[in-house]
Amino acid sequence: MIANVLSIAGTDPTGGAGIHADLKTFSALGAYGMAVTTAVVAQNTCGVRGFVVLDPAFVGEQIDAVFEDVRVDAVKIGMVANAALAEVIAGRLQRHARCPIVLDPVMVAKSGDRLLLPDAVAAIRERLVPLATVITPNLPEAALLLGRTAAQTIDEMQATLAALQELGADWVLLKGGHLPGPQSIDLLQGTGHSERLDAGRIATRSLHGSGCTLAAAVAALLPGNEVPAAVRQAKAYLTAALAAADQLAVGRGQGPLHHFHALWR
Fold first, then answer.
1. Radius of gyration of the chain (CA)
2. Residue 62 confidence (pLDDT)
3. Strands 74-77 and 171-175: what pairing?
4. Is 181 left (phi over 0), alpha (psi -120 to 50) or beta?
5. In a 10 Å sphere around its CB, with 0-12 CB exposed, 13-18 middle and 19+ buried, how is residue 103 labelled?
6. Does the predicted TM-score (pTM) go above 0.90?
7. Are 1 and 12 in contact (CB under 8 A)?
8. If we measure between CA atoms, which residue out of 239, 199, 198 comes closest to residue 217?
9. pLDDT of 108 higher than 90
């Protein structure tokens, strides 16, 4: 049976991040994609110009509309711009969701622009993280969640990973792409399982939407896979999408990944 996977996230009019990247990723990995929009973002490959947050009650109505009609096999949460949205999303998922939840705590775009209001960090940490099957923060996002300086070494990543696990998610995938070096190193930890995932760093400026894509890939792969297997396959998919990204010519800044690298010729 084809999995139905729901993205709850913001938009990207250039198609490289947010729900646009999520839907492409779901499709590329053989899942049927659905999307609930939390915020409309004016951005491109060069940066974020601004965003408008949708009314939280209306976001809740979107979630209700999906779950009351469609079997949902996994949920991916991306941009949650304020505390009110976090509260509504948490409440609706507690009511409806009987499936894996992947939380990508989107806080800062690749351009460095912030994608949430100050009140959102605590709400994400306290309301959404404990509901998650997997959380997928990068090092700056982990630092914001924990109120500490971002890890600069693998040893500091290990300490960050342990602190993140205490926030209540079943699994933590801590992304180490911000560390220097020829390898992109991620750390995965859950009850009774710890794993390091290495991949060669891809020489490309087309990194836009990589965090969204990895989390969406995990969500698409969780139906039918245990978490470690889903994460390994998702990282392999992301690495291949980065390696093929320069086949595209989209934008003057940090371009998008090639989500359909295995399908387009």
1. 17
2. 98
3. unpaired
4. left
5. buried
6. yes
7. no
8. 239
9. no
Residue 228 pLDDT grade (very low, low, confident, very high; cuts 50, 70, 90)? very high
The answer to whether residue 129 scores a pLDDT higher than 90 is: yes
Helix/strand/coil (H/E/C) assignment for every residue in the chain: CCCEEEEEECCCCCCCCHHHHHHHHHHHCCCEEEEEECEEEEEECCEEEEEEECCHHHHHHHHHHHHCCCCCCEEEECCCCCHHHHHHHHHHHHHHCCCCEEECCCCECCCCCECCCCCHHHHHHHHHHHHCCEECCEHHHHHHHHCCCCCCCHHHHHHHHHHHHCCCCCEEEEECCCCCCCEEEEEEEECCEEEEEEEECCCCCCCECHHHHHHHHHHHHCCCCCHHHHHHHHHHHHHHHHHCHHHCCCCCCCCECCCCCCCCC
